[in-house]
């Protein structure tokens, strides 16, 4: 907070497409899609119209013992993401709770079918699934969660594959080593393990760390072999971010639980959803006295306004994907990152897949690191504002997560602004490097 208060606040008052406008009239490209949520840009006329039409009917009604038509229609739309293989939908109001629901449903399912010993969770190193206590327990972000470790339940971690993918860079993968480690854990612990949770293809909060194609399919096969639920946390990766509606669709994977949020409502309203199978749903069906009820609910779960805008977003997104527009944008983003940063003296690594990317800053002598309090990434992000860009750092990295609908000239502006900011800031920090 001391650092935050020491720098000028940007008070945003208006959005126009991929751009945000502050109270002084300055325009900034929204380089992190308003924390990875924005799909079609700000103030989109089609989404606005859907929102207004729903507002003219009803703004909110509870789903606790009730229903409304827009929630039903959205649940049907979401079921289509898996061709009906995950037909049951539990609405929440954010990504963390979508994951919490998946964990609790898995735990309760095994209890209901008479296998209460299956209560453990396997997750991957570098995992981030949210900031509630259940999601912190299955995460692996010490900087965020370490002080709360005494309150968290145990989970087993296996090593993420080392993989890099971008235009022109050398790919590295340790996929088989990671899968062998996972299988060894499953052999030893499957009878006491309820579920495995993973962010498929890209771990966003880990710094856009990637997995190779085919990895998630192999993980699914192991989960089936050892009778462990597979939870795909697609809160970040779904709705066009990696070029398809979901990674599950791209990889031909059907998890037991699919967690959605962020781009679900195109950055308009908070909403989460957890999809699951008919088999799991039926385990919860019974007389009230049987105690099978899943007691979990949030006041604004399945909010009609959120459901309406989510449906309108999906309607616009499908033709964008089919036309090849997203693939072209992703290819351009990769080329622009490579051109600007491949030979940059203060860039140690860069990576990109879909409409995600990252560059890791370093001193010119790459065996050294920036001192923590020097805040290289943060200072570059502040400097980028002077070049018309809002973007967030992660340590000494900058993450590229633009709105899905970003245009060609806007992609070039995004990369140019970061390059200009880095060239202004990083040479001046060189004297402060340490071994």
Account of the protein in words:
The structure is a single chain. The protein has 435 residues and is of the alpha/beta class. It folds into 2 domains: 2-30 and 324-432, Aspartate Aminotransferase, domain 1; 48-320, Aspartate Aminotransferase, domain 2 (3-Layer(aba) Sandwich), CATH 3.40.640. 37% of the residues lie in helices and 16% in strands. It is built from 15 helices and 17 strands. The chain has helices spanning 2-6, 33-36, 45-55, 69-79, 95-112, 133-137, 142-145, 175-189, 215-225, 247-251, 278-282, 304-322, 325-341, 376-385, 408-429; strands spanning 12-16, 19-22, 27-30, 88-92, 120-124, 156-158, 193-198, 202-203, 209-210, 229-233, 257-260, 272-276, 347-353, 356-361, 389-390, 393-394, 397-400. The strands form 4 sheets. It has a 7-stranded mixed β-sheet, sandwiched between helices. A 4-stranded mixed β-sheet has the order 1-2-3-15. Strands 13-14-17-16 form a 4-stranded antiparallel β-sheet. Helix 3 packs antiparallel against helix 12 (304-322) and helix 13 packs parallel to helix 15 (408-429). The longest helix has 22 residues, at 408-429. The mean pLDDT is 94.
